[in-house]
Amino acid sequence: MKKATKKTVIDEKIYKGLVGIITDTTAISKVMPKTNSLTYRGYAVQDLAATCSFEEVAYLLLNGDLPNRTQLNKFKKNERSQRNISTNHNQIIAKFPKKAHPMDTIRTSVSYLGTTEIAWGNEPVEADMGRAVDMIAKIPTMIAADFRYRNKKRRIPPRADLSIAENFFHMCFGKVPSKPVVKAFDVSLILYAEHSFNASTFASRVITSTRSDIYSAVVGGIGALKGPLHGGANEAVMEMMKKIKTPKNAESWIRRAMLNKELIMGFGHRVYKNGDSRVPTMKKCLEDLTQWSGEDKWLGIYNILADIFINEKGIYPNLDFPSGPAYYLMGFPINLYTPIFVMARVAGWSAHFIEQNANNSLIRPLSSYNGKSQRKVRKISERK
Fold this sequence. Notes:
- The protein has a 3-stranded antiparallel sheet.
- The chain is mainly alpha-helical.
- The chain starts with 28 loop residues before the first strand and ends in a 26-residue tail after the last helix.
- The protein is 55% helix and 3% strand.
- It folds into 2 domains: 232 residues, Citrate Synthase, domain 1, CATH 1.10.580.10; 97 residues, CATH 1.10.230.10.
- The protein has 16 helices and 3 strands.
């Protein structure tokens, strides 16, 4: 007599965009429901931005706790010693098409870095930790070199006596600006460094789950980050503000956009229901940069758009909204905003790569098929 077999029941409910689905655990970051604060390893990001440097936060994400002075000095010495890229790497960057978006060039540049050694997933954590620091050190150099070459200028080598934020200004413009500008930039790197299972981080973890290498995981993250619904939103914010031009145009512009149901970039977030906790910190940076530069129209546009959208739609700005005009006041071209995001987020992606490898399971979701039923293959002579 045959034993009765249990039928496998598959839940056919579709969760588009994996909304509300918890796919794994993480100890790296979380938006705390009670405080609405994004936390890195248990520390509120606004507190980190007020107290720490980006280097301290990168160490925190990779190692699980904030460094003491000795640990920080060792980390900084290691990172600064790895900033230079090879002659071959420089030559490749110089040959990139000048019409290519900087996100395409940094994606390809990181991919080249992955060809300089043989790396796989599930290697000793010390090896991948070293590669993570190497990318934190070299990615700013790659971005700045491409920026210089596409503007028909000679590249400026990195300096080992400067912080990551200071050095990036040096490599891009040949000088380090005043402290308020450097501080605002450093804060932006901290705020962009990590954000749990967002699209690019999840893409990186999917790649990691196949036992691929850390370079592939970061390249996949960059590809996801390029999209305007993710990292590219800060570029779209500034393009929008440039179209508005002046604060006196802002109200009529946003009301027309709302009437036409146009997508207004820089507002709303799937995770935050009561406003992005990073925004007040970055808006303060925008205010400081406005005072420093004497250019107040972008802050004026910001305030008008934000007031109308919050009061009439109940939708709050996200981090991209103050970051776009802040980077503009710092002097960065708009197409460099998302590569700057990469500079910061590589710390978070690397932390997730290490965490996924430590307790790995292949990420392979199901799909609900809605195509044609199985059918017969006809010879080409029988097809209409």
